[in-house]
From TrEMBL:
This is Olfactory receptor. Pfam families: 7tm_4. It is a multi-pass membrane protein. InterPro entries: GPCR_Rhodpsn, GPCR_Rhodpsn_7TM, Olfact_rcpt, Olfactory_Receptors. GO terms for cellular component: plasma membrane. Belongs to the G-protein coupled receptor 1 family. The keyword Signal does not apply. It comes from Loxodonta africana. The gene is LOC100665103. It comes from the Eukaryota.
Length: 291
């Protein structure tokens, strides 16, 4: 519900206001986005068309690549076009859509990474029962739970964002709309609301990261009992997953565990987990995967 909202659009300052630097940003991020689309699309198409990639691991990888593609698309096209404009504005409705989609696909990626860790745990620690535990019904149900799980916190954030009153400043010193940035523009006391990114996004990222790293410690410990050939293959897969987890969660935790503080490096760190991670993921999963 909108409350006393006199703002119909927001001004995005982007990464820089320098015309020369904006051209460089345009080239770099256009190539990054195209690389992300190409890499993840190839993974999606390959998994869907190849019978050899029919295991649960590739089932979850399909959804990871899908969430990567959607996450990048919710931010990149708008940001790339804005670098060509002298003054970049985004309507109130577009801003709210970006806030929701940004967090929805980010949460979806978190839950898919957790499912991939569960899959590796069962495959390595319970190999004899792997196919009976991770059957297609279970995998489909888990993915459905991930979609619902991503929808809940995203809906809470967009509801609170729509409830904020905006009556004055409408300049966002960033290249995207995010709940934390909107809080700074609200013409009301947002002290308690400021804690939401920490209790919602921050806690989700931190708890998920700790759970994932703990699970991989257990998996790596159990690999000592495997034969050399099987251990090398499982180790290669787990290391790929660990790299993805660190690259995605590290910057996210840095941004969303601070309710009010703002650092100069925040924009560049946001760039890493909104652009860099989703470009790196296809490279990690393909270069380190013989299949």
């Amino acid at each position: 519900m909108l409350l006393n909202n006199n703002v119909t659009e927001f001004i995005l300052l982007g990464l820089t206001q320098d015309p020369v630097k904006k051209k460089r940003v345009f080239v770099v991020f256009l190539l990054s986005y195209l690389g992300t689309l190409l890499g993840n699309s190839l993974i999606i198409v390959t998994i869907k068309t190849s019978r050899a990639l029919g295991s649960p691991m590739y089932f979850f990888l399909f959804y990871l690549s899908l969430s990567d593609t959607c996450f990048s698309t919710s931010i990149a096209p708008r940001m790339i076009v804005d670098t060509l404009l002298k003054n970049s504005t985004i309507s109130f409705s577009e801003c709210m859509i970006q806030v929701f989609s940004f967090h929805f696909f980010g949460c979806l990626e978190i839950f898919v990474l957790i499912l991939m860790a569960v899959d590796r745990y069962v495959a390595i620690c319970k190999p004899l029962h792997y196919m009976s535990i991770m059957n297609w019904q279970v995998c489909s149900m888990l993915v459905g739970v991930a979609w619902v799980g991503a929808w809940v916190p995203s809906s809470v954030q967009i509801y609170l964002a729509l409830s904020l009153p905006f009556c004055g400043p409408n300049v966002i010193d960033h290249y995207l709309c995010d709940f934390q940035l909107l809080l700074k523009l609200a013409c009301t006391d947002t002290y308690m609301t400021n804690l939401l990114p920490v209790s919602n996004s921050g806690a989700t990222c931190t708890v998920s990261f700790v759970m994932l790293m703990f699970s991989y410690v257990i998996i790596l410990h159990s690999l000592r009992k495997h034969r050399t050939e099987g251990r090398k293959k499982a180790l290669s897969t787990c290391i790929s997953h660990i790299f993805v987890v660190i690259f995605f969660f590290g910057p996210s935790i840095f941004i969303y565990t601070r309710p009010t503080e703002t650092f100069l490096m925040d924009k560049m760190i946001t760039v890493f987990y909104t652009f860099g991670t989703h470009l790196i993921n296809p490279l990690i999963y393909t270069l380190r995967n013989a299949e």
